[in-house]
Amino acid sequence: xxxxxxxxxxxxxxxxxxxxxxxxxxxxxxxxxxxxxxxxxxxxxxxxxxxxxxxxxxxxxxxxxxxxxxxxxxxxxxxxxxxxxxxxxxxxxxxxxxxxxxxxxxxxxxxxxxxxxxxxxxxxxxxxxxxxxxxxxxxxxxxxxxxxxxxxxxxxxxxxxxxxxxxxxxxxxxxxxxxxxxxxxxxxxxxxxxxxxxxxxxxxxxxxxxxxxxxxxxxxxxxxxxxxxxxxxxxxxxxxxxxxxxxxxxxxxxxxxxxxxxxxxxxxxxxxxxxxxxxxxxxxxxxxxxxxxxxxxxxxxxxxxxxxxxxxxxxxxxxxxxxxxxxxxxxxxxxxxxxxxxxxxxxxxxxxxxxxxxxxxxxxxxxxxxxxxxx
Length: 375
Prior knowledge:
The protein is mostly helical. Helices cover 66% and strands 0% of the residues. The protein has helices at 24-33, 36-62, 83-95, 103-121, 128-148, 166-191, 196-210, 214-223, 239-263, 266-274, 279-294, 296-309, 321-328, 337-369.
């Protein structure tokens, strides 16, 4: 029987290897001016940069006032950014009205948090179970004792009415991020549950919280939460918005996690059960790792949005970082139009640095999960 006409009778000769593109200028020329469309976009971006970057450079760097005892030099004609004002107000930006003699307690708390975060996120780190216990269990207890005080440990109490600045913004972001992922997983699993009550309660909570703005959730947590508890158990003024942020972040995270769960093929669960794994082990070892890995960009996007949304706690009277910047500009010693603009530029750089760091880390995680592919 003769072979079909569309089948080869012999192997095709191997093709030559693609030529290595080592010419740096040629590579950039092809990427930026490869066709008319890319050339126009490149020219437009270059024109915008030429229009915006020189004034920014003059204001932030060239004409900036780096050292001054007060705002007089910053109010002079032609003066740029008043970084001397930032240096003078740095303690207030970082700690708010927290007593100066107890700054070390704030520094120690966030140094421990940073160490545990690096331990958890470092790819090659060992004993991550111990790091997780330290971050999720030991750090909240020790951090509360340090920041709030523990008389039985010789640490005087510092009321939350004195907390402010960067410490409050980072605290709100940490609480929201720590609670959002496990809370979102629980709500997502509840929404997919076979139990009608769990499914309805989870879906109702998710849709209700996602259907109102964060400001409304903060107001509800600040005014209504004490109504559901005895007067002696009324939560602290800072704990109320933190609870609202955690609930809001968990509801949004639940939908991201649910999308990841839907992306896991049912064959994965069936294969795990065929190997003898129970429902909990299947979920923990097979389904959740794949589901969370598939939605890393969505998870990090929620974290970035949450970090920026912490500025809204000022609406309910919490003295966060942006609120300290807005308050410090009212000091008559440092009053001036460029001084206020410098404060807001400093706040923008602060949030940009944290959000960019989270974004870069998420890209690294995506590459590791995808086997080093391009994402």
